[in-house]
């Protein structure tokens, strides 16, 4: 070791000049390089210089570094020993420091002492640090010198505070302060802390920032508390130092309570901080959160952090930054263009914290969940939901639940979502996959509002994010389209359609994904196919369609392939696709400019459109169903205004001529043919001269199709001969009238003769001949009536909007004809089982629709020829026909289940009385347009009857009668139910047929729900008139004492029709106001309009009223109808309507008791329902009404006690078929419903009661104890009823809700008894005594279930046993808690049946143990062995420990 050290010293001397030269070549400062001689070593003879030399450090002058010849630790040790062993110690320290002070008076020397020393070559072998410390830092490492050196530095430092940076670029204050960092030991920490804080108070701002941030690197743990207090004081005085102070406080070890104070201080200043400071502030707040205060802090942070004030769109950021930069010091370290970076940094901190701090993530979710519905949600809340969803996988389910609840309650709507994307799109862009995943999850919901919100997520993700996110969004939507779920498919297609309209250029880039849906057309409904082809056509035939020719080619290929198919469902796809394409091409052409170049292009496009339509027409003319579908699709295009005038000019005459040639003949022409019935021109509205007039040639056309097979006619189709089918009558006329209306601005004078012209029919009234008719003839008559009805329906659709009184009168006459024909049709259908009507809706959804029939008869032989397709084979052979198209048409239509062939025989006279509902045949009627309901506005219409010279011969007053009104109201009710009520049908399997919910509503679904609501709101005034008229009708009946209408005659029929109209009007009102779309801000005006109409019926509205006032007045108006309601069902719909209105109110509690009063009146009223009380529909309505009553009454327990304590005893004491006098709706048939609802509501009520706490006041304890006494008394009354009504449903209710009530008693009541026992001993014992008797009955019920081996009941027994055993243990614990253990004893309880008789078994016969039970009251000391004693004991709850026979019996 000695030789090595000497060698090192020798080398050090030899290479001294060389190292000095290298040091000059690489100086630490940035000054110009200069040459220095070797004699520039400090040579004065002070103690300071001598001690340094002897210790191994050579001081250099000028810009040269000081040279350290020994290891740093060796130097400090040598210097320490030199000073410590000096004879004049400790005075030598002062001399040493004085020498230092004298030496550093020179600026260059002081700088050299602060810069690192140069290490000589021999130091490379040392084991010291890899870097060289400065002289000052080395001296600070010596304990005896540290205080004096620190004092010297702090005396020297103020000289440089306000000086500018020297030319060498060294900041002297920062360099001096850096000497104090990372010292191994601080001798006097308090003194150093005081000096630093004094220095910070006088330093410039930019140096204050550096000094504060250096504190954790200087001070030890012992000084953290003192520094924290000093910094908190400084925080209140100096706002610009907020960020460095909080940064330091986060690094110090401080008390939690102290941090809470600082956090609150910072929270109060949150609204005034700058964006650049926000990330550090938020980080400090989040890091100071504990599990106990997390929710409170997050809630306060959410309220005070106005994030929208900081995060603005990019086009406002520049001006915002300029405003902020004016308040900043010019020396600030932050750049003016860092605002986006600060925003991203802020959210990065949030993401990191939420990812790794579970308590903060949960607290943030809870804080958002706790936001009151009336409070305004912020875009920051929604952004945090998305961020938590993306960062915390465990919280996804919780986030979805909270978000869905917020959407249902209307707290989060489209406007908030749009502003969230608008403000935070830079942050949300990074979590796009998570947002799309959330949207996918929302799509699987059954709530329409939630699905709509998911669709908005897709839409905004596509609009705001980059190309990759757009591709992912489109891919996810395509997946939804191919999912097989009808709601998902519809919503996804709507989103794709909206995106195509909003951003077609971006959608065109993703068209290849949308085009892939063409492979899954089998899984789509016709309306969905229309949307898909419309989307693809928009992408393919746009103005810039040169790049989309491949889409055009694929679409043409698919369409031609489907049109040429012999299977009708594929031909249907081709027809819909081709017509939709033609509509888009024509619409795009109509937007062209009027330049010559565009006209040429338009002419070319016009040829493409016409050629495409000709192709569809030629491919469908040999199939009646395909032709009818083509007519309907073409008519839809014209109705939507997608067909240009040029196209209509080409197609109009063709349509007119084809219809006239096919279906219209002269009145004077006598039909030729061997018809089974006499042909007559019926239902004409005008008197025709034999030489004049036209008639619809319906019966001959139907006969030529239906009866051709028997006579061997039409075995082959002549070349070029058109196939005319009565199936096409209504669709062809719809196309004709829409074409004429479009060409003549709605005027139909050109075809008005079709409104009043007669139809070739026969006598339709069956009379006595019905029984003598064959099944074939009856089927023919049914088809004839169906076709006539559909013809009249289309006529009413066409002319309902004509304004002349004469036309209105004829439309009303046609409505009467429809009602009359429907009554006749019901008679025929009742004796024609398994009859399948001709189709009226020609799409995929109707192929599998079979009307419900009264028998399961086979119909294979009867079905042929009924649908309207061509005859398959003249000789009736079963061999496959080469006419594949007709064969496929028939095979598709004839698909229905087979049954008993024996029922092919003619029906007997008894079967004529079979009831038939035309609602089962709704798919086979033409759809009524929404405009038809304008007829409801008609009052008395005067129709003029003209003579042959067009002079008025007579006048006839026509009005809308009750049957016609009922017909219109039923149809409108079905439309609103389909359009406004969301369907909660089960998910359909992939590639399976859809349900038939939307059959017959294809025209309706071409309109949006707000459009339908707007139209119905316009009808509210006439519907209110009808409602008031019906109300007056029933009031007059009551006045005449004719409310009981049960006998036959016109009076009874009129009564039932008016009652049905009453019910339908209430259903329509309920369906309208129950529409969930009213919560959307864009539909608030519709709600106001509807409420204003109702409110104006009471008094005229003179000024604009608030929503609350309108709801209140509308409520008062509708409740006035309650006294006149004719049926229990009408009363239920009226109350539901009033409840829906109250949902729009901000204070529904004010009217809540009125709802309960109306419901009670319905329950206490005698209804003339007769045998209907046994029907399931009446039972469901009674269940709903009773639930409404108990849910809205102010005292549920009192209401239950009234029914069970008054109504039920009245029922028990009444004759068998009688009812309760107080509650006439309570009969022996409806008792189960009353019992079930009362038990359920009782359990629900006590479960919602909060458990008492010891901290509650004495009054609260007494109120809750009284409440539980009432609840137990009600439970006792109800549970004892099973002794009288012991049917299975009643016992099942007792087992199910009895256990739930006991569980609620355990959780809610027992904590109350714990601290109420001492002060209310007698009340508690009385409560437990009553409850014990009830649980004893439950025990008997368990034994009854076992002895009867009723599996439906015994499955509830184990859980009930467990609950009763828990109750025994809990009561014992309560008694022990109150030092009353002696009041409790335990024994075995024998098994008994419902009547209290002991259940005998083998084990029980061998057992001789007497039954004993525990008691809770020391006052009851009588015999416990007798049965009377059993019934009077106040046991806490007998333990449900069964004797051996109950455990071993089967």
Protein model, in words:
The longest helix has 29 residues, at 1288-1316. The N terminus and C terminus are likely disordered. The chain is 58% helix and 2% strand. Strand 1 and strand 2 (67-68) form a beta hairpin. By secondary structure, it is mainly alpha-helical. Helix 27 (467-481) runs antiparallel to helix 28, helix 31 (526-540) crosses helix 33 and helix 52 (1149-1163) packs antiparallel against helix 53. It has a three-stranded mixed beta sheet with strand order 1-2-3. It has a two-stranded antiparallel sheet with strand order 4-6. Strands 5-7 form a two-stranded antiparallel ribbon. The protein is built from 63 helices and nine strands. It starts with a helix and ends with a helix.
What is the count of DSSP helices, taking H or I runs of 4+ residues? 63
Distance, first to last CA = 97 Å
Helicity level? 55-70%
Global morphology:
flat
Strand order in the largest sheet: 1-2-3
What are the segments in which pLDDT stays under 50 over at least 5 consecutive residues? 1-39, 123-129, 313-337, 588-601, 709-720, 853-913, 946-950, 984-995, 1042-1048, 1402-1450
Q: Major sheet, described briefly?
A: 3 strands, mixed
- Would you tell me the overall average pLDDT? 77
Approximately what portion of the residues adopt beta-strand conformation?
A: under 5%
- Which radius of gyration do the C-alpha atoms yield? 46 Å
Please identify the structural class as seen in this structure: mainly alpha
Give the total of beta strands.
Answer: 9
